[in-house]
């Protein structure tokens, strides 16, 4: 089998770089692999004390936060600093596995006997997307292996060109944190068709500068060489569950209202105010940069907007809507939005962004940004502002990103060795 730190062997030899969590003995006997959903675990028996246990295989978040579980006693071992949002769903699922029949649609695009399986299942949108972006590495680094992508059905439209098989799991993301016997049964049945199987690591934070988004969506990203000459365009990404607040008081009112059951009373006002903030910023940009056009996207209801602003907001996502949003991002010099997974796709297409960063998300800085540039252009094109930034503050960055670009590009991309 191949020796590659980005591949985890499964078949014919299961990854066995584990120690018994009970007695510490090494080289346990591999028994099989378990695919309950988000996690992929190896099943082992200690050759010294006969303790039977499951241990996360090093894929996804388990690359750093692997957990071992005693099969007979249900004890959790070796969480390696994993936070409760990682361990709690896993242990809850293990202790109360689901017999719900989850449908997996298997599409074979290119038959083969040697494969690498990339499991992108997760209960969070951004996590699925980040895992999926590992696919390109395996397509390019291991053309001798067919790439099999396990993916939520709602993401199937983004499976990259060159994939050998798609196993589309028909399940809402919110239910993905469970332990599903039917997923394990079907995946293990599929694996018997192959002579050689590896798991892709599915890193939680792959190098996003290498993502060829056109390969995933069929839509070409904004080309930097056209930045100064293309029509000036901004896309505003307006979420309804994480808002751009005018002041700390607005944020406090929203949180208090949610706790006392009055969320809907204040939410309408706050949503309207978020749009006022965005359109005020746009108006100020247009004062210095006449003719700038804009698009608004997001899960929500369309609202009246100024001239030259297209509203693509909707409450029902379809592939057609996804592609329309991608087209809007791809014609934008930059996108504007609040920190979150909602910024991953927009920044994969646009040349840059202005991100409104809540104070409690500093530790997650840029995790949601598909940083396309690895040189000093990154500093110019990716801007982060305070969560209570005024429209004037956002507009100042936007005007600079339009008007100062040509000189910055010349100084840092042309007049260099």
* Beta-strand content bin: 15-25%
Class by helix and strand content? alpha/beta
Domain count, please report it.
3
CATH topology of the largest domain, anyone?
Answer: Rossmann fold
- Let me know the average pLDDT: 95
- Level-1 CATH class name of the largest domain: Alpha Beta
State the share of residues found in helices, binned by percent.
Answer: 25-40%
Number of strands: 17
Instruction: Give me the side-by-side strand order of the main sheet.
Output: 1-11-8-9-10-7
- What is the count of helical runs? 12
Q: Sum up the overall morphology in one term.
A: globular
Question: Can you characterise this structure?
Answer:
This protein folds into three domains: 7-95, no CATH class; 104-213, no CATH class; 214-414, Rossmann fold (3-Layer(aba) Sandwich), CATH 3.40.50.2000. The model has no long low-confidence stretch (mean pLDDT 95). It contains twelve helices and 17 strands. Helix 6 packs antiparallel against helix 7 and helix 7 (263-288) runs parallel beside helix 11. With 417 residues, the chain is α/β, with parallel strands linked by helices. The protein starts with 6 loop residues before the first strand and ends with a helix. A six-stranded mixed sheet has the order 1-11-8-9-10-7, with helices on both faces. The protein has helices at residues 84-95, 125-132, 135-141, 181-191, 213-217, 248-259, 263-288, 319-330, 344-349, 377-381, 391-403, 405-414; strands at residues 7-11, 29-34, 41-45, 52-56, 68-70, 76-77, 104-108, 114-119, 146-152, 165-169, 196-200, 233-237, 293-297, 309-311, 334-338, 352-357, 382-386. Strand 2 and strand 3 (41-45) form a beta hairpin.
């Amino acid at each position: 089998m191949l020796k590659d730190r980005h591949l985890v062997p499964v078949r014919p030899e299961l990854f066995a770089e584990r120690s018994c969590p009970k007695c510490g003995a090494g080289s346990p006997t591999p028994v099989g692999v378990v695919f309950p959903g988000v996690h992929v675990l190896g099943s082992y028996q200690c050759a010294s004390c006969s303790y039977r246990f499951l241990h996360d295989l090093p894929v996804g978040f388990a690359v750093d936060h692997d957990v071992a579980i005693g099969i007979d006693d249900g004890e959790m071992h070796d969480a390696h600093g994993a936070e409760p949002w990682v361990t709690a769903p896993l242990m809850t699922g293990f202790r109360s596995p689901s017999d719900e029949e989850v449908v997996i649609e298997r599409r074979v695009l290119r038959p083969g006997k040697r494969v690498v399986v990339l499991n992108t299942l997760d209960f969070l949108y951004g996590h699925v997307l980040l895992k999926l972006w590992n696919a390109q590495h395996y397509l390019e680094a291991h053309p001798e292996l067919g790439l099999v992508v396990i993916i939520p059905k709602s993401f199937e439209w983004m499976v990259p060109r060159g994939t050998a098989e798609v196993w589309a799991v028909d399940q809402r993301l919110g239910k993905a944190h469970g332990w599903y016997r039917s997923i394990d049964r079907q995946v293990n049945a599929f694996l018997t068709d192959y002579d050689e199987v590896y798991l892709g690591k599915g890193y939680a934070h792959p190098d996003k500068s290498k993502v060829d988004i056109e390969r995933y969506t069929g839509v070409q990203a904004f080309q930097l060489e056209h930045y100064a000459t293309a029509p000036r365009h901004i896309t505003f990404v307006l979420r309804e569950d994480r808002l751009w607040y005018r002041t700390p008081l607005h944020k406090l009112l929203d949180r208090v209202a949610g706790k006392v059951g009055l969320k809907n009373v204040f939410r309408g006002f706050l949503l309207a105010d978020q749009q006022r903030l965005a359109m005020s910023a746009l108006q100020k940009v247009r004062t210095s940069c006449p003719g700038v056009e804009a698009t608004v996207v997001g899960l929500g209801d369309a609202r009246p907007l100024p001239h030259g602003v297209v509203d693509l907001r909707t409450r029902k996502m379809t592939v057609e809507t996804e592609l329309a949003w991608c087209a809007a991002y791809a014609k934008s010099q930059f996108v504007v939005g609040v920190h979150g997974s909602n910024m991953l796709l927009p920044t994969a297409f646009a040349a840059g962004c202005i991100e409104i960063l809540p104070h409690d998300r500093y530790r997650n800085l840029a995790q949601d940004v598909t940083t396309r540039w690895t040189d000093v252009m990154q500093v110019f094109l990716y801007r982060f502002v305070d969560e209570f930034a005024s429209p004037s503050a956002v507009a100042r960055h936007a005007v600079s990103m339009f008007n100062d670009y040509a000189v910055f590009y010349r100084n840092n991309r042309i007049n260099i060795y």
